[in-house]
Amino acid sequence: MKTFAEQFYGFSSAINRIALKLAAFCILGMLLVMMLQVVARYLFSSPPFWTEELARWLMVWGGLLGASCAFHQHADPSMVHPPADSAIRQKIQVVMRFVASWVFFVPVLYYCWPFILRQLSRTSDGLHVSTVWMNAALPVAIILILMHGLAGLGALLSPTISEQESSYAQQTEENLTE
Asked: Of 145, 127, 7, 157, which Cα lies nearest the Cα of 73?
């Protein structure tokens, strides 16, 4: 069981690294598209019609993927950060993060699907692409957050995972005191 927990946590960490790179790419892409729009507007008095919509799509994807990465690395906003040196409090926080995320996100994920299905017949005005591609960012981010929460439960079984979770908590604690 301990080996499975460590493998699943490793998988979660690998997915987090991919999501972090995609989020950075989306934010950088958004910045470049917005710069193109500004240059085209003020130099040529004719911005491309698709730039605003593409920038919005990139912002949504970048923000939601970034939120899942923040959850994985304990950089998400939370009410209580137990001291990093308190192992039992760290384990309680892992369980509470898991429970809270699943209680909040499972109903949201459930109601995402009818919304996504309604978007299948709609296309965006600027890009002429199905709006499902933008709206799919929410369930993708929720699934990632739920997976990271489940993987974090491995801290109850494995000292390796517990150490990694504690190091995230330590980083968060240091960031709050700066």
From this structure: 145
